[in-house]
Write a structure and sequence with these properties.
Blueprint (H helix, E strand, L loop, with lengths): L1 H12 L4 E4 L4 E3 H17 L7 E5 L4 H13 L2 E5 L5 H11 L3 E4 L1 H4 L11 E4 L3 H5 L17 E6 L9 E5 H15 L6 E4 L8 H9 L3 E4 L5 H11 L3 E4 L1 H9 L13 E5 L5 H11 L2 E8 L4 E6 L18 E2 L4 E5 L12 E6 L6 E2 L3 H6 L1 E2 L2 E10 L5 E6 L4 E3 L2 E3 L1 H9 L4 E11 L3 E10 L5 H11 L8 E4 L19
Parallel strand pairs: 1-10, 3-4, 3-5, 5-6, 9-10, 9-11, 11-12, 12-13, 25-26
Antiparallel strand pairs: 1-2, 7-8, 8-18, 13-14, 14-15, 16-17, 17-20, 19-20, 20-21, 22-23, 24-25
Helix pairs in contact: 1-2, 2-3, 7-8, 9-10, 10-11
């Protein structure tokens, strides 16, 4: 099975190389291999069996990945939980997947004194009993696990509704990793600082670089200062983050005094890269940039634009393209009837290949809704250019239809963000008796900025039907941990 093979191969090839680092400790590939095997035996001794679901509630730390790999070795499914969710939300996920155990940090587990009836095991990472798991256990024969067996239930970021449980198998992780590694061609000396949480599809990026033998540095939550310090301390060659994190890092005072010269590549995804952030980062960091376009339902990252294809900051007039689909996966833009549209024409992006999910956990109806003749419907509107690069335009659910004309909120947001006083922006549709729906803009701006300033700016850059009907100032645009705007919190 892929995850087990990954660890065994790296133990064989790089036994003394550091595999994982967090703020408490580090482990070599040999240590990681031995601990995951030991932990699998210990979890089996607790009664966890093949096919059981085990929820993990923790900030990023080595024990999280040790648990994921141990459960995969055992044939059980790991179910990462977003630790920022409210008590009823966590309980709802545990109940829906029927988790038999919850493992995690004691401080987070303490927030949930009562768990659904399916849970019979509750254990914290930071207690001696967890460290001892497997060390005193009798030898247990672990099952033969195939790449078609489900290995995880990963929950979507839920920007428009309740998070869905995406069931993936080891074959999905393998297909994405091998396709990505062919495209990215990483060297075996990579040290990657992972700024993204390990509880949703973004973790596949870390798994992919681990497959190449890289060292991955984990942080218990992102702060600009923590990320900057991690790069300097570990002489990191790569970083994986969302654009908003990069903005905060560049704004931090410490960015000017931190040695970032080891960086060779910044990987970013989950949201468009603001052009001002890109221009500043290119100047300040002097490294390459790699865009990551992915979706949990299709296995994670399936499209990339490498450093050699990124434009110079002065050559960017609109959004940077996402890139080309990785080998092994297929993508196209289609119309409402599912027919592929010509190059340059906007359609909905659909994907197929061995990386796609088995389906939503116990929800065949929702699975059918996103499946079209074997393709997964992403919900993203975009087009393919003549060189095979995918360009995203907007989310289909966010599209505003004003008197029959398509208005893309991301285009308005992009124009607003070019105003020097604007720090962030989000655009949603609002009902209108005459036109059906019109744009409403929410803006985070410097003190003293007026709506007249911004209306004048959009008038110079947008056709009349695209201009916001109203602009409201807010203190912060709501975003989820992946950096995506949570527009359901803004809609009127």
């Amino acid at each position: 099975m892929w995850l087990t093979q990954l660890v065994e191969r790296n133990r064989q090839c790089f036994p003394d190389r550091t595999a994982l680092v967090d703020e408490r400790r580090s482990v070599t590939w040999a240590q990681f291999h031995d601990r995951t095997a030991e932990l699998a035996r210990g979890l089996a001794g607790l009664g966890i069996e093949r096919g059981d679901r085990v929820a993990v509630l923790s900030q990023d730390r080595i024990e999280v990945l040790e648990t994921y790999f141990a459960l995969a070795r055992l044939g059980a499914l790991f179910v990462p939980l977003n630790h920022s969710l409210a008590v009823p939300e966590v309980a709802g996920i545990i109940e829906r997947v029927g988790a038999v155990a919850v493992l995690g940090e004691s401080g987070l587990l303490d927030r949930h004194p009562t768990l659904p009836a399916s849970v019979r095991i509750r254990m914290a990472f930071d207690v001696p009993a967890f460290d001892a798991l497997g060390t005193l256990a009798e030898p247990v024969e672990l099952p033969e696990v195939s790449d078609t067996d489900p290995v995880a239930v990963l929950h979507t970021s839920a920007t428009t509704g309740q998070a869905k449980g995406v069931t993936v198998d080891a074959g999905s992780f393998r297909a994405i990793a091998l396709g990505w590694l062919v495209s990215a061609r990483p060297t075996d000396d990579i040290v990657m600082v992972n700024c993204c949480p390990l509880y949703h599809g973004s973790m596949v990026v870390s798994l992919t670089y681990l497959a190449a033998g890289a060292t991955v540095v984990l942080m218990p939550g992102f702060t600009p200062q923590r990320a900057l310090a991690a790069v300097e301390r570990h002489r990191a060659t790569h970083m994986w983050l969302v654009p908003q994190m990069l903005r905060f890092m560049l704004q931090a005072k410490a960015s000017h005094s931190t040695d970032l010269s080891s960086l060779r590549e910044v990987l970013y995804g989950a949201a468009p890269m603001p052009l001002d952030v890109y221009a500043t980062a290119v100047e300040r960091l002097g490294c390459g940039f790699r865009q990551v376009y992915g979706m949990t339902e299709v296995g994670g990252p399936f499209v990339t634009l490498g450093p050699d294809e990124h434009p110079a900051p002065g050559d960017v007039s609109a959004r940077i393209p996402c890139g080309r689909v990785i080998p092994g996966m297929s993508a196209r833009a289609v119309d409402r009837q599912g027919r592929e549209v010509p190059r340059g024409e906007i359609g909905e992006i659909v994907v197929r290949g061995p990386g796609v999910m088995q389906g939503y956990w116990n929800d065949p109806e929702a699975t059918r809704e996103v499946t079209l003749d074997g393709w997964i419907v992403t919900g993203d509107l975009g087009f393919m250019d003549e060189d095979g690069r995918i360009h995203l335009v907007d989310r289909s659910k966010d599209l505003i239809i004003r008197a029959g004309q398509n208005v893309y909120p991301s285009e308005i947001e992009r124009v607003l963000m070019t105003h020097p006083a604007v720090r962030d922006a989000a655009v949603v549709g609002m009902p209108d008796e005459d036109y059906g729906e019109v744009p409403l803009a929410y803006v985070v701006a410097e003190d003293g900025t007026t709506t007249a300033d911004l209306f004048g700016h959009v008038k110079e850059n947008l056709a009349p039907y695209k201009r916001p009907r109203a602009i409201e100032f807010i203190e912060q645009v709501p975003r989820n941990p992946a950096g995506k705007i949570v527009k359901k919190l803004l809609r009127v």
